[in-house]
Amino acid sequence: MTFSYTCVKLSRIMKRIFLFCTLICFALITGCSPENDPEPEAPGKVIVLMYHRIVKGDASNLYERSLKNLEGDLKYLNEHKIKVLSFSDLEVITASGSMPEGNSAIITFDDGDSSWYTLVRPLLLSYQMKATFFLWTYMIGHDSFLTWDEIEDMSHYTLNGGERPFVFGSHTYSHTYLFKNKDEFASSAEYNSFLDYELGKSKEIIEDHTPDSVTVLSLPYGDGAGDTEIIAAAQRNGYKFIRTSIWGAIENSSTINLFIIPSLPMLDSTVPGLIGTYLGL
Questions:
Q1: What distance in Å separates the CA atoms of residue 279 and residue 130, rounded to the nearest whole number?
Q2: Which of 149, 166, 183, 230 is the most exposed place for a label (fewest CB within 10 A)?
Q3: What is the CATH number of domain 44-279?
Q4: What are the tens digits of pLDDT across the range 53-102?
């Protein structure tokens, strides 16, 4: 009698365990079902934004942008869920052969103005956004340009996850035309020696003050975009990217040329909505 009662009791317990396990499995399966997963975004475009000097008040020339307008740009990126990428991310996109979900932007600054440290750096950190800064190396430490101490501080800054949000690239050593004055050189060898100096010297100096290899070049005045000798000089000096001043967006991973990367100049009167225009918003 006792034995029979015990068996019945065990049977009831086993049924309850089985029912409980079945309910758990059902919950897990339905909770992970495709019906409850968010729909993936369609592949988007990538836009490279090009800034120069940032000022507290109103901009006084074409290549300045007010701090207020810069913040408006960053808000626009946030509000429209435009992800901020790096040039390294762009290399991954090219290798993958597919564009990322949603639209993306790469933020860049040219020349080396001191406003990058006093105004841009804290604003980017408050919005948790990264950027690439192209240095006219001969001018660093002079006039209204950054100091090397400021560059070192920015380049070594590390986020909690270990990422360094501020990357420095080259805007050449003396910020001269790389292609326009080509005919002034007596020979191709002399011209290429000039290119190696402008690209190599700048890279060497920046790498003496920053923790990462310099792999991105910005062409002064946008001069020489797509020129085969300039691209060859960039490659032999260790560059992997050239950001040009050609207006446009990156729409297809299969057509990306990392040595002819288009951009959108953010000038004194540029409205944030122009970003959306280039992204097709």
A1: 19
A2: 183
A3: 3.20.20.370
A4: 999 999 999 999 999 999 999 999 999 999 999 999 999 999 999 999 99
